[in-house]
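The protein record passed on below.

***
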Amino acid sequence: MSSQDIPEENLPAQQGHAHGAVDVADEKNPFADPGLPPHEHRIQDIDEQAARRSERAVALLFTVSMLATVGFIVSYVTVPHDRSIYVFPIGHVSALNFALGVTLGLALFCIGAGAVHWARTLMSDVEIADERHPIEASPELRAKVHEDFRQGAKESAIGRRKLIRNTMLGALTLVPLSGLMLLRDLGPLPGTSLRHTLWSKGKLLVNMNTNEPLRPEDVAVGSLTFAKPEGLEEHDEDFQKEIAKAALMIVRLQPDNIKDKRELEWSHEGIVAYSKICTHVGCPISLYEQQTHHVLCPCHQSTFDLSDGARVIFGPAGHALPQLRIGVNDEGYLEALGDFEEPVGPAFWERG
């Protein structure tokens, strides 16, 4: 149904030619400018039922967008990250990635399609010619812009078409939640993992070089030995993550040289076990000075005194190295008597 089929008395009034338009060229206006063509009215302009149908279609698109956003969030929470599905003709793909892509794409597409359909069927489509004007905005121009904005808001029918307005606001409010959910992909939530390592009561101290459990006689006075927890192997998938928290320095001191009372109680015959991870930015400590019992971090020269609770004596490190309480089992091997009592490595915002 076109405007040609509607009686003229039902059609909106036609607008005249644009200002300055001339049908025939002359000396004053050497180029003919017939102005804008006659405006063709849409069915929605003259039939309220058609306008309501368009309104419901736009609202449906915005509603689908809201449902797709909810589907995105549900998929992110419920679909396992290691599950795959077969999608023709792509093949096997990640079920999570496929669900997130479909739902987010549908949410964004429906918002765009709803806005386009709204603009093409319900907003005013009358073409207006405006004269060129200086770049500087005069008070009159600013007043005209404000008036045009008010007129545009009125012609958009956003105040009268409440169903469109409310569903559009709902869709635009929900779709940013997809981005908030994606922030979780910055990494898994740490929970209490930063406070715990693989060390526990009964775990043997294993030499990092020989991969054999350590006995007290294997650690000579003045030597530096690196150890890992029993059961942690280099081919394990999470080896790097776990060794970054559980790596140990084993040093044997003369018991008389140990100044800190708790350090002496947590040692075995002068053998002390400290975290190898520097408390500044997490570099591995590897330099040991036998005469002074100091260990030095090679990254920023933080220095710790292993004879005095591994306290910081130089450098930017903020606190002492955590000590692991050790003992000897019935078979004569060095073992842990628990986990570190404080988080290893650099301080973090949950530390307390």
